[in-house]
Design brief:
The complex is a heterodimer of chains A (192) and B (170).
Chain A: H1 3-10, E1 18-21, H2 25-34, E2 39-41, H3 49-59, E3 65-70, H4 71-75, H5 78-87, E4 92-98, E5 101-102, E6 108-109, H6 118-125, E7 129-133, H7 136-149, E8 153-158, H8 173-191
Parallel strand pairs in A: 1-2, 1-3, 3-4, 4-8, 7-8
Antiparallel strand pairs in A: 5-6
Helix pairs in contact in A: 1-2, 1-7, 3-5
Chain B: H1 5-17, E1 22-25, H2 32-40, E2 45-48, H3 53-64, E3 69-74, H4 75-80, H5 82-90, E4 97-101, H6 114-126, E5 131-134, H7 140-154, E6 158-162, H8 164-167
Parallel strand pairs in B: 1-2, 1-3, 3-4, 4-6, 5-6
Classes of the chains: A alpha/beta (192), B alpha/beta (170).
Chain lengths: 192, 170
C-alpha cells in the first residue's frame, strides 16, 4: 500500500477532525492532496505528534482528533503510548504509517523492519483498540470502524517506503500553526 | 517529608488563578503536594507522563485548542525536554509555561541532584527562555501571573524555578 493512496482514500473523512501529522512524507503528501486549515503539520519535534493529539483530544473532547504518525516518530516516544492509553481519549484515532524506515533521512531501517510490532506495543501499553492493515481497502474499513467505535484506537498501516521528492512546501510553519488554532476555535464554536 | 504543603498550595492556587486548566507532571519529591492538588481538583486536568518531553507536545496541543496549561517537572525533566522545547514549542511559538523544581542548589543533600542544579539556569539562558525564581510565598502569585502574561504576549516559553526556600521546610 502507498501512503499517498491511503491518505487520498480517507481525505474526505478528515473534514470535521483536528488532524495532526508528523514531518516528512506524511506532511508533504497530505498537503499535495490539499491543505485544509484543520490540518497541523508538526515539522520537527519528532515523537510529539501523538502527544499534541492527546493535548487536543483531552481539552476538546467534542472534536474528533486524528494523528497521522510514523514508525520512526512513534519509536522515539514509546512511553507516550502508555500516556495515551492511561487517559484513553475516545475522540482520538492514532494512525501510524509504518514504512519500516526513516525515509526522509536516507531510508535507514527502523526496528519495525526487524520485527518490532507497533500495534502489539500499543495494545500492551493499554490502548483498547489496535489493528494492523496492509491494503487501502482494509485501511479505510479500519479507519471507519475506529471512528464508529468512539474509542482510542491505534491503527498501524504498513506502507511502502516511497515518498515525494521534496518535503519543503510553501506553507509557512507559523502560518499553519496560527490558522490551525483559529480553525479549532471555530470548530469549538460550531459544536456549542 | 518536609516539602511545604502550604507553599505548594500557594503555587497551585496561583496557577489556577491564572486560568491554567491542564497540568502535565512527572513526580518528584518537591512536587508531591502540587501533583496531588492537581489530581483532586475537578477543574484541572492532570496528565501523568512517562517522560517529561511528552508534556511539551500535550501543552502545545492544549494551547492550539485554546486551553492554558503548565508543565510540572524537576530540572532534570527540563533537560529531558530540550528537543521538544526547541523543535516544537519554540519553532511553533507556543506559550509554554514550565514550573521546574530547582534541585541541586545550595542546601541539596542528595548527591545525585548536584550536577543538574549546576546547569539549569545556564540551559534556560542558552535557550533564551525567560525565568524567575519562586522563593517566598508572598511573591508567588505575582510572578506566576507575570510569567504567563509574558509567555502569552511573546508566544514563547517561560519558566518558573521552584526554589528550596519555598518548597523545603527543614
Amino acid at each position: 500500500m502507498l501512503r499517498a493512496d491511503a491518505l487520498r482514500a480517507v481525505y474526505d473523512r478528515l473534514d470535521a477532525a483536528a488532524v495532526v501529522t508528523i514531518m516528512g512524507a506524511v506532511a508533504a503528501e497530505l498537503q499535495a492532496i490539499g491543505h485544509r486549515p484543520n490540518f497541523f503539520y508538526l515539522q520537527h519535534g519528532m515523537g510529539l505528534a501523538s502527544s499534541m493529539g492527546l493535548g487536543i483530544a483531552l481539552t476538546r473532547p467534542e472534536i474528533p482528533v486524528v494523528v497521522l504518525d510514523g514508525d520512526g516518530s512513534v519509536l522515539m516516544n514509546l512511553g507516550g503510548l502508555t500516556t495515551l492509553a492511561r487517559y484513553r481519549p475516545r475522540n482520538l484515532l492514532h494512525v501510524i504509517f509504518d514504512n519500516e524506515s526513516l525515509l526522509s533521512v536516507g531510508g535507514f531501517p527502523t526496528a519495525t523492519a526487524t520485527g518490532t510490532d507497533l500495534a502489539g506495543i500499543a495494545s500492551a501499553a493499554g490502548v483498547p483498540r489496535t489493528a494492523t492493515v496492509r491494503s487501502v481497502e482494509d485501511f479505510v474499513r479500519a479507519f471507519d470502524t475506529a471512528r464508529a467505535a468512539h474509542d482510542l484506537t491505534t491503527l498501524v498501516a504498513k506502507v511502502e517506503a516511497t515518498g515525494p521528492a521534496r518535503f519543503v512546501t510553501d506553507l509557512g510553519l507559523l502560518e499553519n500553526r496560527f490558522a490551525f488554532a483559529r480553525r479549532l476555535k471555530e470548530m469549538q464554536g460550531e459544536s456549542v | 517529608m518536609p516539602v511545604s504543603a502550604a507553599n505548594s498550595q500557594v503555587v497551585f492556587d496561583a496557577l489556577k488563578g491564572c486560568g491554567v486548566r491542564l497540568m502535565s507532571a512527572l513526580p518528584e519529591t518537591w512536587l508531591v503536594h502540587l501533583i496531588r492538588l492537581a489530581d483532586v481538583d475537578p477543574e484541572v486536568t492532570l496528565v501523568r507522563l512517562a517522560k517529561e518531553e511528552e508534556g511539551v507536545g500535550i501543552s502545545a496541543g492544549a494551547h492550539l485548542a485554546g486551553v492554558k496549561s503548565a508543565m510540572l517537572m524537576q530540572n532534570h525533566g527540563l533537560l529531558a525536554s530540550v528537543n521538544g522545547i526547541v523543535s516544537c514549542a519554540q519553532l511553533y511559538r507556543i506559550p509554554l509555561l514550565m514550573v521546574i523544581s530547582h534541585r541541586g542548589g545550595f542546601g541539596e543533600r542528595d548527591p545525585w541532584q548536584t550536577e543538574g542544579g549546576a546547569v539549569t539556569e545556564e540551559i534556560l539562558r542558552t535557550l533564551r527562555i525567560p525565568f524567575t525564581c519562586l522563593e517566598r510565598p508572598e511573591h508567588v502569585a505575582r510572578r506566576v501571573t507575570d510569567a504567563l502574561t509574558l509567555a502569552y504576549a511573546s508566544n514563547k516559553p517561560a519558566a518558573l524555578l521552584l526554589c528550596r526556600e519555598l518548597m523545603w521546610e527543614d
